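Feature request, filed as a ticket because there's no other form

It would be nice if the structure record came with a short human-readable summary line next to the C-alpha coordinates. Right now we just get the raw output. Example of a typical job, pasted below so the devs can see what we mean:
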Amino acid sequence: MTEEELDDQYKNSKNSYEVFYDHEDETKVTQYRFFLEDDDPEIKNKQLCISKNIFIIPVILFYERHRTIGDKKIIEYYENDEMSIYTETTTENSVTIVKAFSIDGYVIYEDKTYHDADGNEARHEHWVKSEDGTLYDCFDNTGAIDIDISDSDETPS
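Raw output as currently delivered:
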Protein backbone atom coordinates (compact mmCIF):
# COMPACT_ATOMS: atom_id res chain seq x y z
CA MET A 1 0.00 0.00 0.00
CA THR A 2 1.37 3.40 -0.95
CA GLU A 3 1.68 6.25 1.51
CA GLU A 4 -1.12 8.09 -0.32
CA GLU A 5 -3.45 5.06 -0.02
CA LEU A 6 -2.67 4.77 3.70
CA ASP A 7 -3.36 8.48 4.14
CA ASP A 8 -6.72 8.13 2.31
CA GLN A 9 -7.64 5.10 4.41
CA TYR A 10 -6.88 7.06 7.60
CA LYS A 11 -8.98 10.06 6.44
CA ASN A 12 -11.91 7.79 5.54
CA SER A 13 -11.76 5.96 8.88
CA LYS A 14 -12.00 9.28 10.75
CA ASN A 15 -15.22 10.05 8.83
CA SER A 16 -16.75 6.65 9.58
CA TYR A 17 -17.54 7.20 13.26
CA GLU A 18 -18.81 9.87 15.63
CA VAL A 19 -18.45 10.25 19.39
CA PHE A 20 -21.14 11.92 21.51
CA TYR A 21 -20.47 13.49 24.90
CA ASP A 22 -22.61 14.19 27.95
CA HIS A 23 -24.23 17.64 27.95
CA GLU A 24 -23.38 18.24 31.60
CA ASP A 25 -19.94 16.62 31.63
CA GLU A 26 -18.25 17.02 28.24
CA THR A 27 -15.43 14.67 29.29
CA LYS A 28 -17.88 11.74 29.55
CA VAL A 29 -18.60 9.77 26.36
CA THR A 30 -22.28 8.77 26.09
CA GLN A 31 -22.37 7.17 22.65
CA TYR A 32 -20.21 5.84 19.84
CA ARG A 33 -21.77 5.76 16.38
CA PHE A 34 -20.09 3.86 13.55
CA PHE A 35 -21.19 4.53 9.96
CA LEU A 36 -21.19 1.32 7.94
CA GLU A 37 -21.29 0.51 4.24
CA ASP A 38 -23.61 -2.14 2.81
CA ASP A 39 -23.41 -4.11 -0.45
CA ASP A 40 -27.19 -3.84 -0.95
CA PRO A 41 -27.89 -0.57 -2.85
CA GLU A 42 -31.29 -0.24 -1.12
CA ILE A 43 -29.64 -0.02 2.34
CA LYS A 44 -28.71 3.53 3.38
CA ASN A 45 -27.58 5.30 6.57
CA LYS A 46 -26.39 2.13 8.29
CA GLN A 47 -25.10 2.93 11.77
CA LEU A 48 -23.98 0.86 14.72
CA CYS A 49 -24.68 2.74 17.96
CA ILE A 50 -23.08 1.76 21.22
CA SER A 51 -24.42 3.46 24.33
CA LYS A 52 -25.39 2.11 27.71
CA ASN A 53 -26.50 5.57 28.84
CA ILE A 54 -28.92 6.54 26.07
CA PHE A 55 -30.61 3.33 24.88
CA ILE A 56 -32.21 0.47 26.80
CA ILE A 57 -30.35 -1.95 24.53
CA PRO A 58 -26.69 -0.85 24.61
CA VAL A 59 -25.85 -1.89 21.02
CA ILE A 60 -28.26 -1.04 18.21
CA LEU A 61 -27.90 -1.37 14.46
CA PHE A 62 -29.92 1.31 12.62
CA TYR A 63 -30.45 1.40 8.88
CA GLU A 64 -32.92 2.40 6.18
CA ARG A 65 -34.17 0.44 3.16
CA HIS A 66 -35.02 2.73 0.21
CA ARG A 67 -37.36 1.41 -2.51
CA THR A 68 -39.71 2.75 -5.16
CA ILE A 69 -43.00 1.02 -5.88
CA GLY A 70 -45.00 2.69 -8.63
CA ASP A 71 -45.03 6.42 -7.88
CA LYS A 72 -44.30 5.93 -4.15
CA LYS A 73 -40.85 6.29 -2.66
CA ILE A 74 -40.73 4.06 0.41
CA ILE A 75 -38.20 4.22 3.25
CA GLU A 76 -38.30 1.51 5.89
CA TYR A 77 -36.49 2.30 9.16
CA TYR A 78 -34.93 -0.64 11.00
CA GLU A 79 -33.51 -1.19 14.47
CA ASN A 80 -31.61 -4.49 14.93
CA ASP A 81 -33.23 -5.93 11.77
CA GLU A 82 -36.77 -5.13 12.93
CA MET A 83 -38.71 -2.45 11.09
CA SER A 84 -39.82 0.34 13.44
CA ILE A 85 -41.65 2.67 11.01
CA TYR A 86 -41.86 3.31 7.30
CA THR A 87 -42.61 6.34 5.15
CA GLU A 88 -44.25 6.72 1.76
CA THR A 89 -43.52 9.82 -0.34
CA THR A 90 -45.69 10.86 -3.27
CA THR A 91 -46.06 14.06 -5.27
CA GLU A 92 -49.49 15.24 -6.42
CA ASN A 93 -50.04 18.57 -8.21
CA SER A 94 -46.87 20.23 -6.85
CA VAL A 95 -47.54 18.95 -3.31
CA THR A 96 -45.07 16.46 -1.84
CA ILE A 97 -46.75 14.24 0.75
CA VAL A 98 -44.79 12.13 3.23
CA LYS A 99 -46.82 9.73 5.34
CA ALA A 100 -45.19 7.79 8.18
CA PHE A 101 -46.74 4.53 9.33
CA SER A 102 -46.29 2.27 12.33
CA ILE A 103 -45.41 -1.35 11.61
CA ASP A 104 -49.14 -2.07 12.10
CA GLY A 105 -50.01 0.33 9.25
CA TYR A 106 -51.38 3.21 11.34
CA VAL A 107 -50.58 6.76 10.21
CA ILE A 108 -48.15 8.40 12.66
CA TYR A 109 -47.71 11.70 10.85
CA GLU A 110 -48.22 13.34 7.50
CA ASP A 111 -46.05 16.10 6.06
CA LYS A 112 -47.23 18.21 3.14
CA THR A 113 -44.84 20.48 1.27
CA TYR A 114 -46.45 22.86 -1.20
CA HIS A 115 -44.31 24.12 -4.09
CA ASP A 116 -44.77 27.25 -6.19
CA ALA A 117 -44.69 27.31 -10.02
CA ASP A 118 -40.86 27.43 -9.96
CA GLY A 119 -40.62 24.32 -7.74
CA ASN A 120 -39.58 26.26 -4.63
CA GLU A 121 -41.08 25.40 -1.25
CA ALA A 122 -44.00 27.73 -0.58
CA ARG A 123 -45.41 26.15 2.59
CA HIS A 124 -44.87 23.11 4.80
CA GLU A 125 -47.42 21.46 7.09
CA HIS A 126 -46.93 18.68 9.64
CA TRP A 127 -49.98 16.71 10.79
CA VAL A 128 -49.61 14.37 13.76
CA LYS A 129 -52.09 11.53 14.24
CA SER A 130 -52.79 9.05 17.01
CA GLU A 131 -52.77 5.32 16.31
CA ASP A 132 -56.50 5.34 15.58
CA GLY A 133 -56.03 8.05 12.92
CA THR A 134 -57.41 10.94 14.98
CA LEU A 135 -55.82 14.28 14.09
CA TYR A 136 -54.58 15.91 17.28
CA ASP A 137 -51.98 18.45 16.26
CA CYS A 138 -50.99 20.46 13.22
CA PHE A 139 -48.43 23.13 12.52
CA ASP A 140 -46.89 24.72 9.49
CA ASN A 141 -43.70 26.63 8.78
CA THR A 142 -45.38 29.93 9.71
CA GLY A 143 -45.28 28.88 13.38
CA ALA A 144 -49.07 28.62 13.63
CA ILE A 145 -50.32 25.72 15.71
CA ASP A 146 -53.84 24.34 15.42
CA ILE A 147 -55.10 21.74 17.83
CA ASP A 148 -58.10 19.73 16.71
CA ILE A 149 -59.20 17.01 19.08
CA SER A 150 -61.80 15.48 16.82
CA ASP A 151 -63.37 12.07 17.02
CA SER A 152 -62.38 10.64 13.69
CA ASP A 153 -63.24 7.14 12.57
CA GLU A 154 -60.56 7.40 9.90
CA THR A 155 -58.81 4.13 9.21
CA PRO A 156 -55.33 3.88 7.78
CA SER A 157 -55.19 3.48 4.03
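Something like this underneath would help us a lot:
Residues 144-157 have pLDDT under 50 and may be disordered.
The longest strand covers residues 59-69.
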